[in-house]
Amino acid sequence: MKLSPLGDRVVLKQLEAEETTKSGIVLPGNAQEKPQQAEVIAVGPGGNVDGKEVVMQVAVGDKVIYSKYAGTEVKLEDTEYIVVRQSDILAKVEA
Amino acid sequence: MKLSPLGDRVVLKQLEAEETTKSGIVLPGNAQEKPQQAEVIAVGPGGNVDGKEVVMQVAVGDKVIYSKYAGTEVKLEDTEYIVVRQSDILAKVEA
Amino acid sequence: MKLSPLGDRVVLKQLEAEETTKSGIVLPGNAQEKPQQAEVIAVGPGGNVDGKEVVMQVAVGDKVIYSKYAGTEVKLEDTEYIVVRQSDILAKVEA
Amino acid sequence: MKLSPLGDRVVLKQLEAEETTKSGIVLPGNAQEKPQQAEVIAVGPGGNVDGKEVVMQVAVGDKVIYSKYAGTEVKLEDTEYIVVRQSDILAKVEA
Amino acid sequence: MKLSPLGDRVVLKQLEAEETTKSGIVLPGNAQEKPQQAEVIAVGPGGNVDGKEVVMQVAVGDKVIYSKYAGTEVKLEDTEYIVVRQSDILAKVEA
Amino acid sequence: MKLSPLGDRVVLKQLEAEETTKSGIVLPGNAQEKPQQAEVIAVGPGGNVDGKEVVMQVAVGDKVIYSKYAGTEVKLEDTEYIVVRQSDILAKVEA
Amino acid sequence: MKLSPLGDRVVLKQLEAEETTKSGIVLPGNAQEKPQQAEVIAVGPGGNVDGKEVVMQVAVGDKVIYSKYAGTEVKLEDTEYIVVRQSDILAKVEA
User: Fold this and answer.
1) What pTM did the predictor assign?
2) CA-CA to E27 of 20 to 30 Å: which in D36, E12, F64, G64?
3) H/E element holding A77?
4) D7/E53 CB distance under 8 A
């Protein structure tokens, strides 16, 4: 089962932020501030969206930073995704 | 009796989320968080909508995820439907 | 006396929802949830509306579902009408 | 002294709703719900309004229904007028 | 010192509404409801305003009715002016 | 160090409103109502701003009246400036 | 690891405002009003953004003033950045 986004929508999956505190304890993601980094899981076709021509600029596998408060959370087969418009993606994170 | 949507409207019918808890009890849909998956029942013709050309990208029978809070609930012959604009549909769910 | 709507306006008349409860008592429309089905009474000419070209897609006599909270109630010779924009009509109801 | 509206503005004058109650008492307009029927007193030239071409579709003397809450009340030589945009006029009332 | 408005702005000066009550007492403007009539003092050049072509339709000396709540009050050399956009002017008042 | 505004932005510096009360006491600007007159310090290049072509109509040294509540206060080397869009400038004040 | 902004986004890094009070105590940035000066760290490609053609007018290394309340704070490898749209940049600060 997979999500195939429409228009300029992009399906994201949040990156786990496993961090070690100074005392060496590993905090799971939930105990921290929600990270804004995510991986691109699926990309809509772009094209005419609300009467404007949109060219998609992200690709599956990209690491991205997206706008806090943007997007809709979706759960599919026990995995949580965020569906955002491409314009809610601020930047790619490159190695 | 059937609904024939105008413009870029799409008629959806929510998919029942019958789930079995770990103890084996089946919870009916009402006792859970409202699922966002729906099946496409009818699709408007698209074309010029609010001065913008809209091409319909979903078809009857598609399973879709739609935006929480979007759409209007409509009851016809004891069946509940949701009428949304195509732009409120986030993604198709494909097998 | 009749209403002749301007632009993309449509004059609707709510359909009475006379229903029989299980005990056989007929509840008049007022005692129930306001139905959203209506009949089209008059249709504006469409054309240039707010700088956008609108083609009317409903006709007098059509049964339609319209958006809750949309439109203006108007009383003319003791009959109540609702005047909506065509974009507030979600779907036609066909037999 | 007369009002000459600009752009797509229309000057209206509310029609008095003198009605006879069942007991035969005539209630002046003030004691009732504000009627929405009005007569067109003056019509702007239309043309380019906010970058959109507007063609005026009402004429002096037309009886019209206008949107509740729309328009600005103006008093000139003890007569009250309402100045609305043409798009706030819902329909003409024809005999 | 004079105000030279930009774009589609118009400089107005409120007309004093000196009125005589029935008992013959003259109430100065302040003691009454603020009148909406004003005289046009200066008119901007119009032209391209926010990407739209605006043609000015009022001239210095015109008496106009303007929208309540519109405009910015400006005091220059002890005289109070109101600077409005032309679209906030509802109508000219002609003799 | 100087501010070089982008797009249709204009850098303003408020004009001090030193006034003598009737008793001869000079009130510094802070003790009075904030004046809306300012001098133009720097002017952006205009051109394509949010997809609209903007031609700059003010020049360095102009005295202008600007919209209350508009603009962003900026402090640079102990001098306070206001950065506004040209459309927030209501009028030039000419001698 | 670096941020590569999309569309008309610009990655900024706030300039530290280390200041010496009159008594000679150096206040770290946190104890003061948040400065609005920032350095440009990365610049999006511009081009078609929401259907409008955007030409980027800032370059990496520019010192800029940006709009209070604009932008999204992003933390990457313990450094804090602000991602803004170019239209939220008011002016360049030039030496």
Assistant:
1) 0.80
2) E12
3) none
4) no
